[in-house]
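Anyone else keep sequences and structure tokens together like this?

Example one:
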Amino acid sequence: MEESRSKIRINNRIWIDESDLEESFIRSAGPGGQNVNKVSTAVQLRFYAVRAGLPDEVLARLVTLAGQRATKDGEVLIEANRFRTQERNRQDARERMVALIAKAAEPPPPPRRKTRPTKGSIERRLKEKSGRSGVKKLRGKVQGD
């Protein structure tokens, strides 16, 4: 019998298992008044990117995009403490993780192809330069008659 695990959709090609995410709740430094000292409302979401089965190029871009949030073991760590409730912080952390993976799944833009300026644009630029030069020459000291 197949185990029914819930999956999170990133895009049409990429889905991640809930089992590749681990959440831990910590005390928040954000909004919450006195409640902040008593209740662990902040969420630390750990995504095990290496074992999630992402394509190699997506994994490489994810680690690059994550920057300091990525560990040497290929895990991505997101902390969410913007909101006062644990559930809203949990939802925020998941949304940010999905957005990060979706951005990594986008192929990079093709490299820029160098082009030469047209003959007309070169002529216009030189004409404008000579016009500017003439204006600046006229700004010299006024000579008396």
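And example two:
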Amino acid sequence: MITVHHLTNSHSHVVLWLMEELGLPYEMVLHRRDPVTRRSPDSLRAIHPAAKAPTIEDNGLAMVESTGVLLYLLEAYGEGRLRPAPGTADAMRFYQWLTFIEGSAKGPAMQFVRLAMGQADDAMRDMIAQAAAASFGLIEAALDGAETIVPGQFTAADIQLTFFEELLEGFGQIDNWPNMKAHLARMREREAYKRAEAKGGAVDLKGLFAGTTK
């Protein structure tokens, strides 16, 4: 059975959600953040030296990195679900957005922590804002008039995108991107999303970043 090592209020929610969408049996091991530092505990490092969430165990191995984990689970157990058919235009869109979210878009998003903790006249502020607008704008445009990031079908890319949107919400930036904000609201209404939160705890990045964002 797959073991999902879940860190409270973290990216590992996407793996719980995927497992619930696929209806796969799994064991969840809960790891709690330090209440003061909010860092991940040493118990995660005992599973994998990267000490990251999400972490899964399967076939006697531990694996980290959310995009890799999602793709592995889809290929090993998905039976064609939550992804477009291989070799299609939609498959190209799926792979593009699944990797773009954690690549080109994630870096500028995390820079908002620097801005929140830095000085108002930080010389990098405009550059960071411009980089964010360029990356986020592509996602926002892709969602224009679409319910999902791959038009017409819910995929694991929507799962990955939802956590990205929750990051923006935690940084106080989501209102700048109405299509992403609407997508986030839709995804939170999915029953599998709710089951994942019931098991692993609510995703509250506003609370996690409280005191660090302005």
